[in-house]
Specification:
Strand content: 25-35%
Structural class: alpha+beta
Shape: globular
Number of helices: 3
Helix content: 25-40%
Distance between the termini: 29 Å
Radius of gyration: 15 Å
Order of helices and strands: HEHEEEEEEHE
Length: about 130
Amino acid sequence: MNTDPIADYLTRVRNAMMANHRVVDIPGSNLKRELTKILFDKGYILNYKFVEDNAQGVIKIALKYDATTKTPAIKKMERASTPGLRRYVGAKELPRVLNGLGIAIISTSHGVMTDKEARARKIGGEVICYVS
């Protein structure tokens, strides 16, 4: 039993990047699938695949590295809202990561999206994590 599955997701990706792994397997859930889709759309991961089994499923993520320097595409992944302290923001208080160079992933009533999309739709929600 994992008390914070999102922190586990972020830690698995961080640890795989520090160990220069090409692929990381993560237990699946709907929120983790949405996080993975956002990371892929924004160019932080190379590819992903949802493997369905009789239980919750597995997310296979192909990590992205720079071709010449072998540095990971994700420099920093940090959990903002924890189970013990949820962090909710309004549309006017949405955070900016590295002056817009990074992304904040927000869980809203209209689904999971980046801070830029939430700002454009003028909706707030729970700040899940920061990625840069």
